[in-house]
Structures are given as C-alpha cells and as structure tokens.
TrEMBL record:
Family annotation (PANTHER family): MATERNAL EFFECT EMBRYO ARREST 18
Gene3D superfamilies in the cross-refs: CofD-like domains
Domain of life: Eukaryota
Compositionally biased residues, Pro residues: 218-230
InterPro entries linked: CofD, CofD-like_dom_sf
Any GO MF annotation of the entry: LPPG:FO 2-phospho-L-lactate transferase activity
Organism from which the protein derives: Mollisia scopiformis
Protein name, as recorded: UPF0052-domain-containing protein
Region of interest called Disordered, as start-end residue ranges on this chain: 207-234
Amino acid sequence: MNKRHIVVFSGGSAANNLVDVFGKVAEDKGCSLSYVIPISDNGGSSSELIRVFGGPGIGDVRSRLVRLIPEEPSIPETTAIKTLFNHRLSSSPSLARIEWLDIVEGRHLLWTSISSEKRELIRSFLNTINLEIVKRLRPSSSFNFQSASVGNLFLTGARLFTGSFESAIYLLGAITGVPNNVNVIPAINSNFSHHISASLKDGTIITGQNSISHPSAPSAPAPIPTPTPQPSTFGLTFSAEPESTSQLGEETDLSPTTSHLRTLSKELSEHEAIEDANLPGSLPTLRKQYITFHKSHTEDLPSRIERIWYINPYGQEIRPAANPKVLASIGDASAVVYSIGSLYTSIVPCLILRDVGKVIAGGVKYKILILNGSLDRETRAVGDGGFTARDFIAAVADACVSSRSSSTGRTRAREEEYREFVSHVIHLQGEGTPRVEKGELGRLGIECVRIYGRKREGGEEGDGDGGMIYDGVALGQALEAIIGGPKRFSDRSRRNTLGISGVGG
C-alpha cells in the first residue's frame, strides 16, 4: 500500500515555528498531516483550569490549532479570530476578571471584525465556561483569571459542553478554518488530567511537567534525592520542589527525607481545606498554580534525566493507553517526524504510551529526528557536557521500547534497536548545538543530514544562550529529499539562497 501520511510528534511553542515547513512538505508530497500533542502540561493558565475543572493540559493543543489558522490578510475576520484565541488576559487578577467579563458579554474590542454568527457561537461556549466558573466558586477556592488564555477557556468550555476533548478540538478547527488535511491529535483522548514524573540519575524524582521543564520563576531549588518508596509513604515521596529544613521551624537537625515528608504532610493538610477538582490526598505539587513561569534561563538539573513515566494523582506509576487515532495515524504513515522542542516533556510523553513504539517500528519507513539547535534544561545538567545526537536518539528509542515493556519487560533500547525508531537525524552545526557522532551513528544505520541555519540572536526564543536556528527552506528540502526516495545525503550544508528567514530550533 502506498502510504501518504506524515505524523509529527511535537509540543507547542518551539514546533509552531516549523508548521509552515511541515505544511509545505505535506502539500508537495500530496500527503495528509497529523500532529500528535501531549496533554501532560500543568503550567501557565492550564494549571488553573486543571485545578478548578480537572481535565487534560490543553495549552499545547490550543497553541497548535491557533497556529494552523490560515493567514488571510484579505479577510480581516480570520486575523481577528486568531487574535482572539491567542489573547491572554491581564497579568493582574482583578483586571483580568474585568476584561474576561467584557469578552463574555461581547463588549471587548477583540470582537471587532468577527461576524455576528461566529461571535455568538464562540460566546456561547465562553458563557458555558463562565457559568461553570461561577458554579465552582467556594469560600476556599475561586478561579484566577490572571494571564488566562481565551483559547484555553474556549476549549475547556467546549469540552465541558460536549463531554469530549476531541469534539472541542474539532469545533475550534471548524470555526477557524484549519485545513481539512491537517489533524491535531491529543496523545491521550481523555477528560481527565494526566501528569508525568521524571527520575534523574542521582535518584531524584521530580513530579509534574512544569517542574521538570521550566519551574516557576524564580527557578525552584533542585529537588533532593528520595529513597526507594515504602508502601506506607508511597504517594508522599514523589514531589517536586521540597522546602528546606529551615522552613520547618526549629527542628533543623532532621534528615532531609524526614523534613521533606513533614513538609508534604503539612501541604496535604492545607490543600485538603481547599475544595477544587483535585481528589483528596492528591500530591500537593499537582494542585498548585503555576500561572507565571519562564521557559528560558532556568537552572540546570542536578543530574541527567533517566526516565519519564505517567502517574496518578497520588504519585503511583500508571501506563495509559495511547489515543487510538494516534496509533491509526502512525500505522498509515510513510514518515514520522520527531520535531524540535522539549525532548522529555513534549516528545517522550507521546512515545511511552502503550503500543506507540510497536507501531512505529512495525511499518513506518522514514523516522526522522530533527535535532534541537541548542540544549535546554532537559538535555543538560550540572557538571555535564550536555546531550549529543546519540543521547537524543537513545531517549527516543528508550521511550519507544518502554511503550511495549509489558511484552518485552525492558525500558531500555539496545543500540542495534535504535534504527527501528530513528532512521535519519537532521541537524545544524555551530556554537551551542548538540554534538553529532556521525561515524558512530552511521555504523548503527542512522543517516545524519547537516543543513544550513543561522546563529540565534540574544532576544530570540530559546532556553539558555547560544545555539542555532533552522532555515525553513533548507529544512523543507531535507525533509522532502528523505521522504521522497532512497537518495542519500553527503554531510554537506544545504544553503538557502532565497533569503528566507529562519525558524526556531
């Protein structure tokens, strides 16, 4: 069967810079295109929606849907709708609440240029979420509108009204004119929250995507290593950002573990007094607000990330099933692309879901890793030289093997298995980019393709300093050449002579 489908695994903001590249490749190849997006985000305005309503982390899904709205300068309504769903309320909670009411009641300037029929349709779902916010108001808990995303509020309102996250995604795409040949698929199709934990090589366990990737500013202190959990305290040992012993009163001679457990016990008692969507006894770190955070200039981890897994609200490991549409899309794909972005909080959470690795290894011909143009908090650690291309590939392969661990009993891929999950690596070369072991990877059957990019400027988006930015034309040419046939690249730069601006890496 001649497969004409491309699947892209990605998160939100970083890969948004490549949407036009992926779209053009799919168009040139006559392919449909699917984006698989994780739902484990618990930072930003998503954290407040999860706290009050439960449900999946929708920020990355909303970000991709809005990015896919066609740019039509000749149609003001398209631009106005895109601006509306991209809009964030004021950073002042009181001003944000007033602004929200102006939007719900149709008085805000954002409604200018939006036709009455679409305005009233959108407002109906904003009114739905507004009613639910009022219904859930309690003396101990009220919704914080600070920096809330209008798009996130719309998706949540649509999900609550229809009872289906995928229906909410379809509705937003239909209203905004997202192309019919492009699908945005949540990695897990669920009305419940799904959180992740990370174990570091030094034994530390960090709970929650926000704490793993970009702790709330100022950066959270490094978590302390935790011992092997005992049954009586299993749910308590999995926590991010433990407080120092100096915050526990006069008992400063307590061991770090004892102080940590006492702090958690105190936090559990405090959170039990708050009536929200969290189950009694849920880990405190999963119940907190992480509305304000910075994605850049975060502290390095104390040790490398070793493994990512999903947890229930009490910190116990679970193995969720992948969205059936994810498995079906991969099964129909001629190419799978692991996009740029956060390796362990954007890509890996999609790959560790049950049977994803099996389907990727089973019939996808081209498995392309686009290497990040710089290292971030997840791919470097204190005293560590940072990830190389081989480390990125190993993380992808380990995640895929882990997804079928019920049948293999393994969570680590053997070197000879890397080729089953990554066939090509597209990368940049320059200051701050990950080192690429071309010879070693070649012996493993993985082809390295070096393309043209430019140096990241100081004010451009990215985690940390330095690094390179992908050129859109060169990246598109590389993807089309790989997917288009057996032609192999030599290790040479593919330069853009058209003067097209670069895209983030």
